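Below: protein 1.
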Amino acid sequence: MILVTGGAGFIGSNFVLDWLAQFAEPVLNLDKLTYAGNLGNLAALKDDARHVFARGDIGDGALLTRLLNEHRPRAIVHFAAESHVDRSIHGPAAFIQTNVVGTFTLLEAARAYWSALPESEQGAFRFLHVSTDEIYGSLGADDPAFSETTPYAPNSPYSASKASSDHLVRAYHHTYGLPTLTTNCSNNYGPRQFPEKLIPLMIVNALAGKPLPVYGDGQNVRDWLYVGDHCAAIRAVLERGVPGEVYNIGGNAEMKNLDVVHALCRVLSTLKPGHDYASQITFVKDRPGHDRRYAINAAKIRRELGWQPAETFESGLTHTVCWYLDNEVWLTNVTSKTYQQWIDLHYAQ
């Protein structure tokens, strides 16, 4: 069995679903079920005995100890995190509590559990920490892409909290020998993403005839990674990665935010024609400290582990839009009154 934290969230649920579609090995899924954690993401596993769900907080050390000792996982894949920059600007405390204190608590529980394993099982155990490219800061237009040796320079409470957790994971390997692995990925998109992030937000608003809010001049650049490709990369790192190493995961798809929105409008026009979605694009005040450009150099994971993305941005975007069009009930359930209040707060004219 493996333990997945945050396995009801966007990336975590996709990872759990992909894992159980390919392997017989069970998954213990620990999720707090905050606003972005959604059991509806895992509806297909309702009657699957290989999926064991536990509702709880990674900051609850007693719960972690009990789950580890009861289920005896061979690996921990740690997705659980507060993950949205805008939310971190308005309420940074939750990001410190989950991403820093929570990761520390999980590391302590994992270290105690791992230390008590037989020597043969200690060598096979892995703690895989899923992080972000935002810990590296912002790039200029002509700067080389982030590599695993790029110095950390986080610019938001969110990225600072993730940088802190990365350092803790590194320290637990070098100090205690815990066999850790860290991945830093670029912007994910795909099915089951909570519609606060750019692509699902644009889909929801476009279908509702609402403005498509683009921060600033829309020229901020991100590298886009389809979530299925990200999950495949994590599986490769878990299986073949070297303990103590960091692996950057990118989609080879650098795009300006405005170009992403225009591409999305074109896909919608093909799949759900009859409306000029691009006419809904609206520019709104830029958020504080908005990093101008991220880019990932994924040469290491390609060279050492043989992974590369299977989807282009165009194919991944089409898969994504099709999923949202086919899952209106899911959208209705997550776009509640609370969600609308949050959107009004962040994207007011």
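Below: protein 2.
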Amino acid sequence: MKILVTGGAGYIGSVLVPLLLEKNHIVTVLDSFIYHQTSLAYCCRNTNFNIIRGDVRDKKILSDVLRDVDFIIPLASLTGAPVCDKNPIDAQMINLDSIKLITQLRSKEQKIIFPTTNSGYGIGQDNIYCTEESILKPISLYGRLKTDAESLLLDSGEVVTFRFATVFGMSTRMRFDLLVNDFVQRALSDHAIVLFESHFKRNYLHITDAANAFLFAIENFESLKNTPYNVGLNDANLSKLELCQIIKKHVPNFVFIESDIGRDPDQRNYIVSNDKINKKGFYAKNSIDAGIIELIKGCQIIKRNNLNFSNV
């Protein structure tokens, strides 16, 4: 297949693009490289890999790169509540307006696989699983823009949307502003963390499973299309406190203290059912424990205070 990945040099794209190339797909990446990342440099030797430095807000560039592709994977995004709150105009243009532009420019045969977020569920109900039929109640600008983009795409047809759980794990374009990655890094460097809203729960997903979800959608598009799917680990609907307790098993000198001070800008507190995608045959396989072990190794390579490994 000929596949366009916008934002393909980002955290998820830097894991996904090599997997697509391993499957012998022809992959074009459009990325603005705003974080000066070199995460896809080693892909340049692959003759099926094409790279274009450009902005998804540029209609001319987007029109050119959309020509003749079979699948579009729009990863270009200001990802996370803090960066969207800091740059609301850019967030609107990149996270939503560029998606509108893609729907206007693509042909009716071109298929889209779009990652959104299950933070759109906002504040859930105790002991009630959020399913794809649950009412979306996004609180942050980031959540609202991703929810609006998903709605727009589903209305346009020929699309699969994934409501990803909070992603964790190592990438060649690393982020330490994601919850599991952040907590493991702090456990190793600071040996302590102050938890606010420690009872708040959310679901989690290893970055490799996130990337494999796209491969699954490419191979099973017709049976999946035109509906959203939650994607996360079935046994990882965890509170912040529970997550810290798991990390402590691997970092014994890690200390965590609960506090009433602090607030999650997304107010994410929900448990999620992944039954719908499971019934289609896809299961997330990489555990929280395996991801923590991986991150502990990665933190020996990357020292957070030397470079900016976040989206903020």
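The chain has a mean pLDDT of 94.
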